[in-house]
Amino acid sequence: MLEPFFGIHLSAVALLLRLAIGSLYIYHGYPKLGTARKGTAEWLKSIGFPGSLATLAGVVEFFGGIALILGLLTSIVAALSAIWMIATTWLSMTKIKKKYAGGYELDITLLLVSLALAAVGGGSFSLDYLLGI
């Protein structure tokens, strides 16, 4: 429906969205696997959460970002990423008491784009397409 109206191939849009949010997830997840893991774990403990969630956050964000960029299991990874963003938004709103602007606006944006990717899939420029998934 959008393709004839805008002249844009939906697979190209899916690729752009995958590159955009995949790179953001990688950027935010990588430090949690290395240099920032200890600090993130201590911070999580200070607000009443298990410190092991820091490693989980790093794994989910970093490897999920890679999967999204490659277009591997796109709909599943995007749906799981959306659930993760719901959790981080809840944390920002209730435990940290952040406001939308300067607080959890990135989480909401990632949530919405993840939901869009879960709905449209990886497109024809993805491993999903090449593997017939």
Strand content: under 5%
Helix fraction by DSSP (H/I, runs of at least 4): over 70%
Q: Runs with pLDDT <50, length 5+?
A: none
Order of secondary-structure elements = HHHHHHH
Any idea how many domains? 1
What would you call the structural class? mainly alpha
What is the makeup of the main sheet?
A: none
Count helical runs: 7
User: What is the tally of beta strands?
Assistant: 0
Give the C-alpha Rg.
Answer: 16 Å
What is the 3D shape? globular
**Separation of termini?**
23 Å
Average predicted local confidence, pLDDT = 88
Describe this structure in words.
The chain is mainly α and 133 residues long. The protein is built from seven helices and no strands. The protein has one domain (14-127). It has helices at residues 2-6, 10-33, 37-46, 53-70, 74-95, 100-120, 127-131. Helix 2 (10-33) packs antiparallel against helix 4, helix 3 packs across helix 4 and helix 4 packs antiparallel against helix 5 (74-95). The longest helix has 24 residues, at 10-33. The mean pLDDT is 88.
